[in-house]
Write a structure and sequence with these properties.
The chain is of the alpha+beta class. It is about 45% helix and about 20% strand. The chain contains 11 helices and 11 strands. Strands 10-7-4-9-2-11 form a 6-stranded antiparallel β-sheet, covered by helices on one side.
């Protein structure tokens, strides 16, 4: 089972960005935020879902939230790299776009010369601290992130090819459960439905989720639903009531209660806050 990093950058103005020159050795893990890495010197082996890729100088590694990944550099060798970690809110329209297949395909790609120059011009070193960039800096970083993921999608397979690849890759109960929920969370899915689909017992899934996230299946399902609701509140004109049903909640009251539990705001308050920040 991959290690689960529980730290979450839920505020989309908070970004961790750093440049380092060291041996990059990180066990296979998953986390709730997105990750970008640009290899400046050396090379690193990238592991995910029993797949191994090599990222060399000039390559980009693009990792979506909840995506299993790990890094390995041989002993006595170093790699110089820029890495940015940021909330899925920052790229929610990419994550929830129906044609996105980044969740299934290889993580490494070689950027165009234009994108490479843009990365090298815009990346910044913050000494591995969480920062809250000013508005101009945030926009600059967002433009870079969107450009990177735009090129990453061009290197991805078709949705049909991605689904086939995903079915052939063996992974652990936590990763399989997350993949199942992200594909089915808008329906009335239960842990029993998930168990039948991924081939593990309900009790084993519950045990693994408790150990990894200290969450139940229903809590994880609600977390994913609320993240999608936040996306719709930001980018659609649907009413909060319509959004609740679109995200899989069976009543407006349940949606409002769960949303406030996880965000400390009502859906209406969240939407108003987002409008003010634009």
């Amino acid at each position: 089972m991959p290690e689960v990093q529980k730290e979450n950058f839920s505020n989309d103005t908070r970004v961790r960005s750093t440049v380092k020159n060291k041996r990059l050795l990180v066990a296979v893990h998953i986390h709730q935020f997105a990750e970008l890495a640009y290899i400046m010197e050396g090379e690193v082996e990238v592991k995910h879902n029993k797949i191994k890729e090599v990222a060399k100088a000039g390559d980009v590694i693009a990792v979506l939230p909840y995506r299993e990944h790990g890094y390995y550099v041989e002993q006595n060798k170093k790699v110089k790299y820029w890495m940015a970690l940021f909330s899925e809110n920052l790229i929610s329209d990419i994550i929830y776009h129906e044609s996105t297949s980044l969740d299934y395909n290889n993580l490494v790609f070689t950027p165009s010369p234009e994108l490479k120059a843009l990365i090298e011009a815009k990346m910044f070193d913050t000494n591995d601290k969480i920062i809250e960039p000013d508005f101009e800096r945030t926009l600059s970083l967002k433009s870079l992130i969107y450009t990177i993921f735009s090129e990453a999608l061009k290197h991805s397979p078709s949705k049909k090819e991605a689904d086939t690849q995903n079915q052939t890759v063996s992974s652990d109960p936590v990763t399989k459960t997350i993949s199942y929920l992200r594909a089915n969370f808008t329906g009335d899915v239960s842990i029993e439905d998930c168990a039948k689909s991924i081939g593990y017992s309900s009790s084993h899934i519950s045990h693994c989720l408790k150990k990894a996230f200290n969450m139940s299946f229903l809590q994880l399902r609600n977390d994913i639903r609320v993240n999608y609701a936040k996306h719709l509140l930001r980018f659609s004109r649907m009413s909060p009531n319509e959004i609740g049903f679109e995200c899989g909640f069976n009543s407006e009251e349940t949606f409002k209660r769960v949303f406030k539990q996880l965000t400390k705001l009502t859906p209406q308050q969240f939407r108003k806050n987002r409008v003010r920040k634009k």
